[in-house]
Amino acid sequence: MSESEIVLKVERLEKSYWGHLRLRRHRVLRGLDLGVARGEIFGLLGQNGAGKTTTIKIILGLVFPDAGSVRLFGRRNTVVSVRERIGFLPENPYFYEYLTGREFLDYMGRLFGYSEYERKRRIGSILERVGMSGRSDVQLRKFSKGMLQRIGLAQALINDPDLVILDEPMSGLDPIGRREFRDIILSLKERGKTVFLSSHILSDAEALCDRVGIVKDGVVSAEGRLEDLLRPTVRSWEVTFSGPRPADLGGAEILAVRGTETLARVTTEADLARLLEGVRAEGCRLIAVVPRRDTLEDLYLKEVGGP
Amino acid sequence: MKLWAIAINTFREAIRDRILYLILAFALIMIGAGRAVSLLTVGSEEKIIKDMGLAAISLFGVATAIFVGVGLVFKEIEKRTIQTLTAKPIRRSEFVLGKYLGLALVLFVNLSIMTLAFYGLLWLKGYLDVTLGKAIALIFVELLLVTAIAIFFSSFSSPLLSSLFSVTLYLIGHLSWGLPLMADRLESPAGRWICHALFRVLPNLEYLNIKGRVVHRLPVSGEDMVLAAVYGLGYTLVVLMLAVGIFRKRDFL
Amino acid sequence: MIRRLLIALAFVAAAAATAGAEGRLHALRSSQPAGSQLLYLPSGKYLRAMAPGFREVMADVLYLWSIQYYADYRPDERSRFLEHVYAGVITELDPHYQDPYIVGALIMAVEAGDVEMGLRLLDKGIAANPNAWLLMFEAGFYCYDTLQDYARAARYFERAMMVPGVHPLVRRLHAEMYNLMGDRRASWRYWLEIYNTAEGDYVRSVAYRHVHDLKIQVDLESLTSAVKAYAGRFGRFPADLGALVEARILSSVPHDPEGNPYVYNRNNGQARSAAKPLLRQRQL
């Protein structure tokens, strides 16, 4: 990663919280590092309480770290003007109940110092993008969760930010909504924007992110490109066929049987060849051969520690 | 400008807060009650209506300042709208001052409504005396100061404690004249010094209280009014700056 | 960096302006005594309506303030509102609180020099508290001590005496008032009552002294007037006191409390007592 391209750089973040009456000290972040380059989609993953939310809050300037630094576009994150280039969608967003969607976006627009004309223009186009054009003249308290999420995204994008920070962007969305959000995020990348998101939903992260970081015990225990982190080699094949089972299965493991269909797994190329040969010999119908690589879930569970 | 945008938003939000109307209703009732109470006895109706009217404006203004003020900052933090705001290019100081300005606007409107009702009643009964406005002007300054105090406390403590502290400081502010009296009764010079020091340093809200003088048509010099206003506004500025200072350094967990 | 400096400057300026204004205000307002705006309280009747349930506390607070306020003696304008504060406000708020009557009257009588105002206040208190013998005593005492209006004082003491639990001193003062008025017969009668109903040696001995001396005076008075009557009728003084009885002017010849006859001088018609008065002749 070339230095000049780094949009977000977090170095050696430390943060502790004090329990009741300053008796107990709970160290949340213990020297967390991460970096996000321009134009990529970065996913921050981790269990609840691992320090994800704290990290995001520190990046945004809501919380002050005990040690370490955060630089946005090469400048300290506490500099106010830096925030003209970022947009943020919090988890479970809550906005001013008695404002309509449009009034709310207008308020946000004012905070950027846009003129009335500029605000109108931006609001119009952003509502279009998030699919809320016709529905934003109602008070926010009447919005469904999905609508709130969209308005939230709208306010995050209203200033056409270079870095978009999303905290659990897909939560509460129905499948269509999630698809639309995914498309919006991908389109951001196409336009050269950088996206930093945190999520629980590994499949989303896997589908969207270029790079991920897994937070465990207050540090990033694994970080890098997905391809690098996940072994590129195929770990196993899952073969589905119907018909009588071949006598010699070799190293194949039967995973499931449904009616005449059998799902078996083999872990080596040799076993695969043997199984396929057996299937053909028996005259079975080969339905599917699916190579399985490391999933993000596998990596995640490894890093975070399963049950 | 951004400060103004925050102020307008705060104003709009406060307008929607029901407690505002409750307090206003009580105030108007109390202003009218002056008329009813005076029915209970003979003579001095004019004084009673004026006294109760001014007391209502003052008391309910303070109630609005404290309870609505404390609620406003708290709501933003609790409802986490503050998270959205922090990501915008505004300073924390702009946020606090914007909220203060919005609340000051609310108080101004509140005060105006109460004053209109008050003047209306007085005019109907033929007791209208516009010099009462002098007292109301200083009441407004007092409200500005009390609001600043409420915002100061709510920048670091819970709404319950903030309300409590604010009300306490308000009462102290009106009773601080007792401190010099107490000092005379104390034996130790250290104790006496503390009493006198506290008297000078604590906000002396009685300087802003000219209700008695105005109702009795006693003279209030221009110098007096200007000094009182400078005192009130200066103290307000100091408190606001302290509030901003605290607000800037805190974590929003 | 410059911003920070400007902000610090603004802070210092605001603080300085505030302190400056405060200093000037302090000087201005100090010319009026602390809490003087409380003088402009509406009548207690109105205050009662405004503080239901807290009347008594209000009375307490105002009373305490009034003590502080009037404690530093400064005549002139403080007496202007004296009656309003005590009669019009505090005692209206809590008519049964006795201290304000007593202390208020004290301030009125002594500091402001207006005893009648104090008596008015005490009368108000007595009207509201028929069993407050202390208020009656105080009133009687002002009449006796300051006004030297013994008859009026006696009337107050008499009222006080009717209250059960009254301090016995009041009865003695009552008796003495008649003496001071010059009605020694009545005084003697009252003192005799006290003597007869005395519950302790001290009171009895005090009463005895009064009865003793008063009897002498009463006897001498009646002897003097009897001698005058005799002289008027017969043109000369009687030869002895027995002659007064013969002439049917007196029914019997009185003896002094020690049982001895009075000494009579037939030349000038003067009677006097051989017994010495028990009480010191003090200037009452």
Number of domains of chain B: 1
What percent of the residues of chain B sit in helical stretches (DSSP H or I)? over 70%
Q: Compute the number of structural domains of chain A.
A: 2
Instruction: Using the coordinates shown, work out and report the CATH topology of the largest domain in chain A.
Output: Rossmann fold
Q: Note the run of SSEs of chain B as H and E.
A: HHHHHHHHHHH
Per CATH, the superfamily of the largest domain in chain A is: P-loop containing nucleotide triphosphate hydrolases
State the assembly state of the protein chains.
Answer: heterotrimer
Q: Structural class, from secondary structure content of chain B? A: mainly alpha
In the CATH hierarchy, what is the architecture of the largest domain in chain A at level 2? Answer: 3-Layer(aba) Sandwich
Chain pair forming the biggest interface? A-B, 34 and 25 residues
Q: Write the H/E string of chain A, N to C.
A: EEEHEEEHHHEHEHEEHEEEHEH
Low-confidence stretches of chain A: none
Rg from Cα of chain B: 20 Å
Approximate strand percentage of chain B:
under 5%
Query: Tally the helices of chain A: what do you get?
Result: 9
Q: What's the tally of helices of chain B? A: 11
Describe the structure.
The complex is a heterotrimer of chains A (307), B (253) and C (284). Chain A is of the alpha/beta class and 307 residues long. Helices cover 32% and strands 31% of the residues of chain A. Chain A is built from nine helices and 14 strands. Chain A has a six-stranded mixed beta sheet with strand order 6-7-8-3-9-10, sandwiched between helices. In chain A, helix 2 (101-111) packs across helix 3 (116-130) and helix 3 crosses helix 4. The longest helix of chain A has 16 residues, at 175-190. The model of chain A has no long low-confidence stretch (mean pLDDT 86). Chain B has 253 residues and is mainly alpha-helical. In chain B, helix 3 runs antiparallel to helix 5 (92-125), helix 5 (92-125) runs antiparallel to helix 11 (222-249) and helix 6 (132-154) packs parallel to helix 11 (222-249). The radius of gyration of chain B is 20 Å and the shape is globular. The model of chain B has no long low-confidence stretch (mean pLDDT 86). Chain C has two domains: 36-167, Serine Threonine Protein Phosphatase 5, Tetratricopeptide repeat (Alpha Horseshoe), CATH 1.25.40; 171-284, no CATH class. Chain C is mainly alpha-helical and 284 residues long. In chain C, strand 1 (263-265) and strand 2 form a beta hairpin. Chain C is built from twelve helices and two strands, in the order ααααααααααααββ. Chain C is elongated and about 120 Å long. In chain C, strands 1-2 form a two-stranded antiparallel sheet. The mean pLDDT of chain C is 83.
